[in-house]
What we know:
Strand 3, helix 3 (77-88) and strand 4 form a beta-alpha-beta unit. The protein is an alpha/beta fold. Helix 1 packs across helix 4 (103-115). It has helices at residues 16-29, 53-63, 77-88, 103-115, 120-129, and strands at residues 8-13, 38-42, 69-73, 96-98. Helices cover 44% and strands 14% of the residues. The radius of gyration is 13 Å and the shape is globular.
Amino acid sequence: MSEEKAVGIVLVSHSAEVAAAVAELARGLAGGAPSVPVAAAGGTEGGGLGTSAELISAAAHSVDRGAGVAVLTDLGSAVLTVKALLAEGDELPDGARLVDAPFVEGAVAAVVTAAAGGDLDAVEAAAAEAYDYRKA
């Protein structure tokens, strides 16, 4: 799969470290997934805990290859910030979508599915299915 056709994935967390670690984990479990553009958008511009519309928007544009952008969030204001960006209509790339999925498991499923050539609908479905992963 060429990078130009890959679904982009943005991981939004209140913590830059958490977002970066989940991106690293997802790439690693997907065999490195060199063809999948993944960006972490964590914390605030000043490095604190929180969410930043500017960081999220920049991350989404950085992974946009024209096949859509799946945005996964951790909780609370991250979800609200992405919803606000989508409502504004011009802050995120066309085809950007908030994906309702658990953050870690959903990120792994999204990256694996994108690496296998899945389109945005398939990436979203795989990430959402992570809600059903049983651990016991």
